[in-house]
Amino acid sequence: xxxxxxTETASGQSTEMVTKHTGHLFPWVKPxxxxxxxLSDAEGxxxxxxxxxxxxxxxxxxxxxxxxxxxxxxTSAVEAQLHRIGHTSPLYVTEPQVLAAExxxxxxxxxxxxxxxxxxxxxxxxxxxxxxxxxxxxSEIIALRQxxxxxxxxxxxxxxxxxxxxxPTQVAGIKHARAPYTYRSPLGPGAAxxxxxxxxxxxxxxxxxxxxxxxxxxxxxxxxxxVGGFIVPPRGYLWRAAEVIRSYGGLLISDExxxxxxxxxxxxxxxxxxxxxxxxxxxxxxxxxxxxVGATITTDEIAEAWTxxxxxxxxxxxxxxxxxxxxxTVMQREDVRTLCEARGAQVRVEMERLCSDFDWIxxxxxxxxxxxxxxxxxxxxxxxxAARAQALLEAARDENLLVGVGGRYGHVVRMGxxxxxxxxxxxxxxxxxxxxxxxxxxxx
Length: 444
Ligand SMILES: Cc1ncc(COP(=O)(O)O)c(C=O)c1O
Fold this sequence. Notes:
With 444 residues, this protein is α/β, with parallel strands linked by helices. The chain is built from 13 helices and 15 strands.
């Protein structure tokens, strides 16, 4: 890390900052850890707190610093743009927005080529849903339980976790099918993959047939449920789900907020593993390496059906767009798809080894550089063990390793570092994780 950028602070300043944070921000702006970390500097996969302590960041601001903190190409693109023009509003054409849309169309599968830029995943989801409803002239949406869609009224209602639905606002017309969550399937985690797929597809059909008027506008699905705890659908599920929703005249909206841009390895977008071209795709998080960008991409036909007014003052602003263009350029130059496959396999091998050492690691799952461990009381009873997951989160912090938690009960430990993480950095992180597992084993 560039030490010239490090702020010299006296110990204790973090405590003061945390006290002020608690006093001045809404309680839901809630940091991790018993004693929250105050981050001040970063480079690549390394971050530093106010006290000067360095951590390996394997959660990347929730899979968002996709090519590493303060990537020089992004920093210089943003700096250059700041000196030219920082804001225009969508009332004017700008080069960065056009370039970003062009790049996105190049990366996206099939004939997805018309984009709308906003400022968050939530807004990108809202845009996708509006486009689907306008195009189909319908209003019912199928979402998946354990899915996460954001924090607006619509997005919280789409979300399939009680704890992430604190708003009293109820949005009508959203029905949830079962999450394709094989580890917690009523068939049991050992059931054959085809059987699991049949089961979850039958449920999707059943929800459409019984809980809607049979005319859904769309199915919204993450290709791996991120907040849900990196739930990977069984083989064939997404392909058949696309067939099902289209057979009812609805669209498939693929939420690639966490799974986009090579994160799952081999392909640019998670849905491509299923051999499906969605009708609409939603992106955010890693698209601009931490700058606030939400993107919704679709076909000419679907985009052109939306003839009414809409505007986002900051959507597509030149600074964020310059960051997005620089980020996507680096992603292609470095071919992060291949890197994620290799580094992900490295993480996976180590997690599998830990799974065989500790019987409270119930399952290891994920794709590419999106890998998780589901923490349970025992491999037979498989009750979610959020306390152990928290102990592991804290123990990893003691090892100067940042990881995330997820899952309905916060019982899934998740990793999703920068896609440019090196082999040595992965080795180092996994050694730290192994020591943290030993500490968490003793903790309860
Ligand atoms: C899959 C998915 N969709 C949508 C969102 C909402 O994105 P944002 O927090 O940028 O509004 C998230 C955020 O975690 C997400 O994981």
